[in-house]
């Protein structure tokens, strides 16, 4: 797992000197600089969920897009979990954004501002291509991926200036840390129980199978 993340206050402070996220540089409403009506169309924060919401096992994943372990989970473990549990209706997985830095925060914003039909695809792309976009100029790379997904430059810029949405992400992150004492990412909670094993396939399948057995599934 990646090291314990910055506190909410330190994260916001750390963003203030960087150009990537104007949203965190001011922490003042951005609606005044946007066209009238744009704020009304601004997306609200809701974590991404895969699978049947009524599945017997619910998995919460707290992840950061700049976390190498999170990317490996999405590349090496999640595909099997999707085949074995999620697509089979035995489990669902909800990704709760837990950004460790401003770059991860920018990606979180993009995955929630994008058209709903491509949001989850963008999640997959950012984790799958992490080594590529993180080694380039981050804002240009993130913007490029969003543009290829169909967002206009104006939409990307407005998204990265969306302080209301960004604050909602930080608030949810703080709530998760307070409730679950997140010591690193990725962290998982399976049917209300914090998973203390690794994110590797064997550990995850054992934990999910145990939760299924407890529910009679």
Automatic annotation (TrEMBL):
**Origin: domain of life:** Bacteria
Q: Which residues form the signal peptide?
A: 1-30
Span of domain Thioredoxin: 21-213
A GO MF term: isomerase activity
What SUPFAM superfamilies does the record point to?
A: Thioredoxin-like
The record's listing under PROSITE patterns reads:
TAT, THIOREDOXIN_1, THIOREDOXIN_2
Q: Keyword annotations for this protein?
A: Isomerase, Redox-active center, Signal
PANTHER family given for it? GLUTATHIONE S-TRANSFERASE KAPPA, THIOREDOXIN-LIKE REDUCTASE RV2466C
Protein role = May be required for disulfide bond formation in some proteins.
Q: Which family does it belong to?
A: Belongs to the thioredoxin family. DsbA subfamily.
Full protein name: Protein-disulfide isomerase
Please name the source species.
Answer: Roseospira goensis
């Amino acid at each position: 797992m990646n090291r314990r993340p910055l506190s909410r206050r330190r994260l916001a402070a750390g963003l203030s000197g960087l150009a990537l996220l104007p949203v965190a540089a001011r922490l003042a409403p951005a609606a005044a600089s946007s066209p009238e009506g744009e704020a009304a169309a601004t997306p609200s924060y809701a974590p991404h969920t895969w699978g049947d919401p009524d599945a017997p096992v619910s998995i919460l994943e707290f992840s950061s897009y700049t976390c190498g372990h999170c990317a490996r989970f999405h590349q090496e473990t999640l595909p099997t979990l999707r085949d074995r549990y999620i697509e089979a209706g035995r489990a669902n997985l909800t990704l709760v954004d837990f950004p460790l830095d401003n770059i991860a925060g920018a990606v979180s914003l993009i995955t929630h501002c994008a058209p709903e039909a491509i949001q989850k695809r963008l999640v997959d792309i950012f984790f799958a291509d992490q080594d590529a976009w993180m080694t380039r100029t981050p804002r240009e790379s993130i913007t490029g991926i969003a543009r290829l997904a169909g967002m206009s430059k104006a939409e990307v810029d407005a998204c990265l200036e969306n302080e209301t949405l960004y604050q909602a992400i930080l608030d949810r992150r703080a709530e998760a840390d307070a409730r679950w004492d997140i010591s690193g990412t990725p962290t998982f909670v399976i049917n209300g129980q914090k998973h203390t094993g690794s994110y590797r396939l064997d550990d995850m399948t054992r934990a999910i199978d145990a939760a299924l057995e407890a529910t009679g599934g």
